[in-house]
Design a protein that fits this description.
- A hairpin with a 5-residue loop joins β5 and β6.
- Helix content is about 30%, strand content about 20%.
- The protein is built from eight helices and 14 strands.
- Strands 11-10-12-13-14 form a five-stranded parallel beta sheet. It has a three-stranded parallel beta sheet with strand order 1-2-9, covered by helices on one side.
- The longest helix is centred in the first third of the chain and has 15 residues.
- By secondary structure, it is α/β, with parallel strands linked by helices.
- Bound molecules: flavin-adenine dinucleotide (FAD).
- Flavin-adenine dinucleotide binds next to α6, α7, β13 and α8.
Length: about 300
């Protein structure tokens, strides 16, 4: 989201104000290029609370009057940003994956089958999917931070917080893998995963997967790549029998090379592929494994 915000600000000769509710983040954020960082001087905001976040951001927006308010499309943002949009009575273009030279926001529709450009009257809110912009493109800087006063008395206790949910620690770290063979629902049956395992062994590659494979219990959750799995950027990502949904693409589209085997030439994964075969994986994968094994 920050890379996107920097790009949009630069393109429009605009200012970029970073707002954070957590003072610990200032130490990280100050090293990135922006006009200023602001943070409410209120320890009560350090723990996520949708109503308090909405209250605080409403006041910040009224004070700073931005044209565009940008969020990362996190689980938390999904919870409270629609409320902010309603409170301020301004549009919220969620789930965006980029922005166009003409300043339109790009957002996928119909399970990623089309990407549409969207525009809105100002001000409006945008949330960018993780992986929408390359982290490597973050512009560094030395940005000053300022405490601001907000009124965060809450008369509404309709939302009570519990302990935050913690993801279990991954035992497989795919983020460092150089070569990943990733399998999707096209593999059809659990016993067919063996074909992918044999190819991965021949290439000395890690195995990744789309979410349905993990949901079926055919591979462990650590292998899932995408918005609710791992984010990877190997030298080669070999996508076999997966369609390339938006949620999957955000986890792998920054791979250096993307090879695809899919029998549907209109599968969205082909849009980001460097090389692809429109073919039946059951014909190609065993032959490929055999050729590689015969060469080594
Ligand atoms: P499908 O979309 O069914 O694609 C299967 C593909 O296999 C098709 O393109 C088909 O042409 C091809 N195929 C079929 N048979 C063959 C064959 N014999 N040979 C070659 N090709 C064949 N998904 C993720 O992957 N990661 C995530 O982190 C993730 N997080 C999500 C979070 C949320 C909140 C939601 C709502 C969804 C999430 N999803 C995630 C699910 C996502 O929306 C898709 O449903 C999923 O990625 C589709 O998986 P797939 O590509 O394996 O299956």
């Amino acid at each position: 989201a920050l890379v996107g915000a920097q790009k949009i600000a630069k393109k429009n000769n605009g200012e970029l104000i970073i707002a954070t509710f957590n003072k610990i983040c200032i130490d990280i954020l100050k090293d990135f290029k922006a006009t200023k960082i602001i943070f409410p001087d209120d320890n009560d905001l350090e723990k996520f609370h949708p109503l308090k976040y909405t209250n605080a951001m409403e006041q910040i927006v009224k004070e700073e009057e931005p044209n565009l308010i940008i969020f990362g499309h996190t689980y938390e943002a999904r919870d409270w940003v629609p409320r902010l949009s309603a409170r301020l009575n301004i549009p919220f273009l969620s789930d965006a994956i980029g922005f166009h030279e003409n300043n339109n926001i790009i957002r996928p529709f119909y399970q990623g089958k089309i990407n549409a450009e969207m525009s809105s009257s100002k001000p409006y809110i945008v949330s960018f999917q993780s992986g929408a912009f390359k982290k490597d493109n973050l512009k560094t800087g030395n940005t000053e931070s300022y405490a601001i006063k907000i009124n965060n008395t809450l008369n509404d206790n309709s939302i009570l917080l519990e302990e935050p949910f913690k993801e279990s620690q991954s035992s497989v770290d795919l983020s460092q893998a150089k070569l990943i063979i990733s399998v999707g629902r096209g593999i059809d049956k659990e016993e067919n995963i063996m074909l992918i395992k044999e190819l991965a062994k021949a290439l000395n590659a890690e195995i990744g997967s789309s979410r349905p494979i993990v949901d079926q219990g055919w591979l462990e959750h650590d292998r899932q790549i995408g918005s609710s799995g791992q984010i990877v950027s190997p030298k080669l990502y070999f996508a076999i029998g997966l369609s390339g949904s938006v949620q999957h693409q955000v986890g792998m589209k920054n791979s250096e090379n993307i090879f695809v085997i899919n029998k549907d030439k209109n599968a969205p994964i082909f849009e980001i592929a460097d090389k692809g075969a429109v073919a039946d994986l059951f014909e190609i994968v065993p032959k490929l494994t055999e050729i590689i094994n015969n060469q080594s």
